Batch of 3 targets.
Target 1
Amino acid sequence: MLNRSHAQASSLYNKLVQKIMQLTNGIDPELNTRFDWLIARYVRWCALHAAGGGWMCDYDVLNKAFTPEIAQEVESGGTLQINAGQPACVFYATQEHCANAIKKFIQEPLIEGKEMLFEANVLGVLTDLYRIMPLLHHAKEKDGLPRSGVMKNSWEE
């Protein structure tokens, strides 16, 4: 599992964090209360960059039928793969993809109005990970259950 110490090993980490810190004054106050979550969405790209690229997955994603063969097929395409239009719960990026994404995060606006943009929106990535999304389950809080309860119920299905 990658963490902040891995992210700090990226040569682009300090520039990205500096950019994000400058933005906090323009973000809706409600989002500022979730600052750790917001910064983690972008900083994790630095951790993957420092690790040499690969797959990144949120902690609340369960594998239902995603196999190494499917992963290899996606990787062999050599393109950045991200579930677009929402928070990226799973994506594949080479080290070069990560470096280019981080540079774009540093250069481009990360806020629209008073809301922080998701990575896919900043990158303008509209790829097709929807074919593997049915093989995974992103556990979001629902029906009054915390994520852990949703994950447990999903696992038992």
Target 2
Amino acid sequence: MIYIGLLIPFIGTIVGSLFVFFIKNEFNKRNESILLSLAAGIMFAASIWSLILPSIEMGGVYSTIIGIVLGILFFSFIKFNNSKMFFAVTLHNIPEGMAVAVCFLSLLVNNNISLISCFMLSIGIALQNIPEGAIISLPLCNKGYSKNKSFLYGVLSGIVEPLFGLLTILLTGIVVPILPYLLGFAAGAMIYVCIEELIPEASFYKYSTLFFSIGFIIMMFLDVIFG
């Protein structure tokens, strides 16, 4: 199950990168905004129910706060020092892969997170990765790269997610004792991605707040009902 969960976000990147073979022009901005809005809502809710609340339950509020602050600060620094699109997308995919792995680890170790919550986190990230894969591959194709090479770059931007997720699993012995901090860290990273990356891009469409709310409610409902 855990390996399927790690692969789901990467599948989203592959799907988005495949658009280069079917779309002649830039990815439709309205459709991109809708997908990003839904993904942001799902991911923001997942940050709360799948990461923050279990972190508080496992280690208390202070370890959770420390983790959230460290996650936000760390990826604020990464963002500040990397401005190229490919590297920016690749770097912020790293904490997403780690977040999925940490979520499943928490399920296995403490069983205080539902399986549906873990998979909804994976699906939320996958939804976000669809337009991101297109954002990488389509502009490269427009600049003269072949479709195959553009597709490859799009895929490479997302492959770090399952790789860093797998690395997190392999380091379980180190990860488990600091799991509350890591859950908070992953939540901080996810919140940062939502606020700094997804919401500004999604705000192009006037109904983006509505779709954000829909995504948030879907994730909240599934987690509360099946959690």
Target 3
Amino acid sequence: MPRPRSPGYGDQHKAILTAAAQLFAQRGYTATTMLQVAAACGVSKPTLYHYVRDKHDLLAQITGNHVSRLVELVDGVAAQALPPAECLRELVSRFMSVYAQAQHEHRVLTEDMKFLTPPQQRQVQDGQRRVVQVFADALTALRPELKTQGLDKPLAMLLFGMMNWTFTWLRADGRLSHDSLAPVIFNLMMGGLPTVGPVSS
């Protein structure tokens, strides 16, 4: 019979994933050891294995949870059936708020997904495709012809380009924050969107 989980199991599990994400982001996945993760969490190595099978399991949980959170976010916004501009504004704003709290997880997703097994990669990629689709749908709601021109997803990816890489240059002690950048990104997209026309091959 399996041992029942302690009342604080969930909190400790979350703390382990958070600490591991920070170590993977700062040191690199391959350079980080389970002993370092255990030390960062203030637990013994045997205790760490009570929560995760191994380092690969840590990576799979970090990336999977991060993408699942993003999918939940976009599906939640889509379910509100907001006017097109407000939908896009809300998507950008909420994405930037999530990124502010998950910069390490996002770096791990960006740089270390290649270490997942093919099935795990496909699962993460399925989530990423769902996220892109919701953003593409929001842009198409503003300009329906984008879909027939094949520009809905490329424009969504350009929008992600503005948001996704803030972890490489945006500093917590700087003048700008994720929340203050969200309307800048939204306004840049909205300002440029009317100028986009068919792309010749």
